[in-house]
Amino acid sequence: MANKKNTRNAHGSGTIRQRPDGRWEARCTVGTDPSTGKAIRKSVYGSGQQEVRKKMNAITAAIDNGDYKEPSKLTISEWLDIWIEEYSLSLKPLTVKSYKTQIETHIKPTLGRVKLSALAPHHIQKFYNKLNADYSPKTIKNIHGVLHKGLQQAVILGYIRVNPAEGCKLPKVVKTQIMPMDKTIIPAFLEAIKGHQFENIFIVDLFTGLRQSEIIGLTWDCIDFDAGTIYIYRQYQRLIGSYQWATLKNGKTRLIKPAKLVMDTLKAEKIKQTENRLRAGSAWQNPENFVFTNELGEYVKHPTLLKHYKKVVTGIGYPELRFHDLRHSFAVVSLQAGDDIKTVQENLGHHSASFTMDTYAHVTDAMRKESSERMDTLIQSL
């Protein structure tokens, strides 16, 4: 039976009572139901009278300040589904696909049933600590990025007051050492691809540094043979079961003026494609006007290109080389040839020159040392 003696009004904003089970309950009015006109009452619970009074006073203070929000009844799983479906319009399709994978594979199994309003930093920290046993720091950072973004949208909408992922500690990400082709590997690679069906695409990529989806999506309208330039403004991305056009990684289009070898290679590809089209006749299919196609005009698929590339680099004794290392190789060769950081950044489409410098710090360090040695030699001669 309720303790009537301890039932009282809390500063005119609610009541406090002790329940039959010994716990304390405070009830206060938090608003009015617009459909019925009836008061909306909220209860908070605690082990003591002082505890529930503090909770009730915090609610009434928030109401007086006009910033009280009824805690969301959504679970983390329910909210992330809403977020990814309704608030991801500005994201690229490949990014949405990646976010969904992180949510379904990692976040939902552990945190999915937790109420959005009840999620605390220590829940998330414990989740990250558990992941640390099986996943790399970079993977955990990516998972954190998705969860943090989703929770931040909930903050913006007023579903939660603060982002509980904000103060969590992540394992330190160790920067992966890039593995570009050096001046001994490049000649061996070029020799190995002579006569290969993808020789031209390999050459163009090695000496332009295009991303894989950029070079696969290269179309003839991007090539200006008179000016000797290539315009990069989109990429052809591989999603589940289909390919589709997407904007560039940093949303920045770029115009590059590559070496004469690249333009000559593209001219050779143009002649080759014309011959293939004549042989194919009505079977020719290239409505998008792709630069690199097979004998019937079909675009080159990512797995096909990667398979042939891995076979080539394995054949010359470097199976660890990735297709993306062609891009790194172009950057390193450009720097060693004397191109300034800003030019290399613009050719690669990096968002900033500082990012380029950080990525290829080992190359720039070596160049600074060589510059210092050249200056010493000059000083000695003087």
Automatic annotation (TrEMBL):
Pfam families: Phage_int_SAM_3, Phage_integrase. Residues 1-24 are annotated as: Disordered. Keywords: DNA integration, DNA recombination, DNA-binding. CDD domains: INT_ICEBs1_C_like. Signal peptide: none annotated. Residues 174-373 form the Tyr recombinase domain. Residues 74-155 form the Core-binding (CB) domain. Coiled coil: none annotated. It comes from the Bacteria. Belongs to the 'phage' integrase family. Site-specific tyrosine recombinase, which acts by catalyzing the cutting and rejoining of the recombining DNA molecules. This is Tyrosine-type recombinase/integrase. It comes from Acetobacterium fimetarium.
